[in-house]
UniProtKB/TrEMBL annotation:
Residues covered by the HTH araC/xylS-type domain: 186-284
Keywords: DNA-binding, Transcription, Transcription regulation
One Pfam family linked to the record: Cupin_6
Annotated region (Disordered), positions in chain: 281-309
GO MF annotation terms: DNA-binding transcription factor activity; sequence-specific DNA binding
Protein name, entry field: AraC-type DNA-binding protein
Organism lineage string: Bacteria, Bacillati, Actinomycetota, Actinomycetes, Micromonosporales
Length: 309
């Protein structure tokens, strides 16, 4: 499996959420930090991205804001400093008519971390999506963002998968960088991703990487942020969360696919990582529709204070 496919598969273990944002007049809104990957697609009007660090960025229809690993950020009708964004509060209703329309979505991981391909990217990336495929997916995302129509729970994750794939391709093509990692570590990661049920040792993985065990363990942690053993467990349980969320496989079958000897050993490991038993996790996410997570918003009259340069 290639690295972009791995990254999207890992993200898919999270909860898919989306919201359509429409504003008029003077406004400012904050999106809190999340554990996951998200994006915003500008459909109408001119607005400003307010990153946690750095200057405000002017956006127009067709621009995409890609947030690979979920830091806080905001938007406004004019440039401002991040510190001037409002605290969390209930948003005001969508205005009619509206000046600005953008759609936002994310995969929110309850526990664990995102794929190293995503966590290694900049905090916030702005892209110009002239790709007609992205525009078509943006229209579909806006249609299904409300979560109010039959089939939205199925359609939303599928649309988000395709958007993530296309945006990662656009980013890497634009940077002139192939979506790859250290070749030796990449071989080990691919083997873990394709065969998470195997009881890998550091010696076995270092042999795949064609490195000494000590050099491999050091380089592996530099790339992933985890020891090989911790990474293997995280990947197994992330795959388990995905199977629980999207399939009806019995726990004994899932446990076996992930290399656990019994359903009970899988349940214990899953509960430690996610803070909830697998059965309850499955029920909770089956019962929970893909409803929007609303950002905090302020629509008080008057201009937003200018950014400090």
């Amino acid at each position: 499996m290639d690295k972009i496919s791995e990254a999207v598969t890992t993200a898919r273990a999270g909860r898919a959420v989306a919201v359509r944002n429409r504003y008029a007049g003077s406004w400012v809104t904050r999106f809190p930090a999340i554990n996951g990957a998200g994006l915003h697609i500008i459909r109408q009007g001119t607005l400003f991205l307010i990153p946690e660090h750095g200057d405000a960025v002017r956006l127009s229809p067709g621009d995409v804001v890609f947030v690979p690993h979920g830091p806080p950020h905001g938007f406004s009708d004019g440039p401002c400093a991040f510190r001037d964004l409002p605290p969390a509060r209930t948003p005001s209703p969508d205005p009619e008519p509206y000046d600005v329309d953008f759609v936002s979505c994310c995969y929110h991981l309850d526990r664990g971390r995102g794929h190293e391909l995503l966590t290694g990217l900049p905090d916030v990336i702005t892209l110009r999506a002239d790709d007609p495929g992205v525009r078509g997916l943006a229209d579909l995302l806006g249609e299904h963002a409300s979560g109010e129509h039959p089939g939205d729970d199925v359609a939303l994750p599928a649309i988000m998968d395709l958007l993530l794939v296309r945006l990662l391709r656009i980013w890497h093509d634009g940077q002139g960088v192939a979506p790859s990692l250290d070749p030796g570590v990449a071989r080990a990661l691919t083997s873990i991703q394709e065969n998470p049920e195997k009881p890998y040792s550091v010696r076995q993985l270092s042999a795949l990487a064609r490195m000494s065990p000590a050099s491999f363990a050091r380089r592996f942690k530099e790339v992933t942020g985890d020891t090989p053993g911790a990474y293997l467990i995280r990947r197994r349980l992330g795959r388990g969360a995905e199977l629980l969320r999207h399939t009806d496989l019995p726990l004994t079958v899932i446990a076996g696919r992930l290399g656990y000897a019994t359903e009970f050993s899988f349940s214990a490991a899953f509960s430690r990582e996610y803070g909830v038993a697998p059965g309850r996790f499955r029920r909770r996410h089956r019962d929970e529709p893909a409803t929007p997570i609303r950002p905090s918003v302020s629509g008080a009259p008057g201009r937003v204070p200018p950014a400090t340069r």
